[in-house]
Specification:
Blueprint lengths: L1 H41 L13 E6 L5 E2 L8 E6 L12 E4 L6 E5 L3
Antiparallel strand pairs: 1-3, 2-5, 3-4, 4-5
Length: 112
């Protein structure tokens, strides 16, 4: 009887956790794709490796160091997408800022 109760309690929790982890991965996949499209539009893709799926996505609070397409995002949390640079790149690929809710590019930071 205790085993049944334990099973009925633990199994749904594991399913919920598994589904929520999948959602996070899917969200970052969309964020990465949006950022890569922006990099292509700006012509910055020549500096970055083609494997854009292997980018780094972190949450940051926007400060004055970023070039904002929408100034209302200063001081707000956004996702920063950083691409890996090609080995022979003289200048690095800019970090792209994406609104986590709308999945739209809101700014960038040029690399050195």
């Amino acid at each position: 009887m205790k085993f049944k109760i334990l099973t009925l309690t633990v199994f749904p929790i594991l399913i919920i956790i598994g589904c929520s982890n999948q959602q996070v991965a899917d969200d970052f996949g969309e964020v990465k794709a949006v950022a890569w499209e922006f990099v292509n539009e700006k012509g910055w893709n020549q500096m970055a490796k083609e494997e854009w799926q292997n980018t780094t996505v972190i949450e940051i609070v926007v400060d004055e160091n970023y070039e904002l397409l929408d100034p209302s995002f200063e001081g707000k949390e956004v996702l920063s997408v950083s691409f890996q640079d090609k080995e022979d790149a003289v200048v690095g690929t800019p970090s792209i800022l994406v609104d986590p809710i709308t999945k739209e590019v809101v700014g960038y930071m040029l690399s050195e």
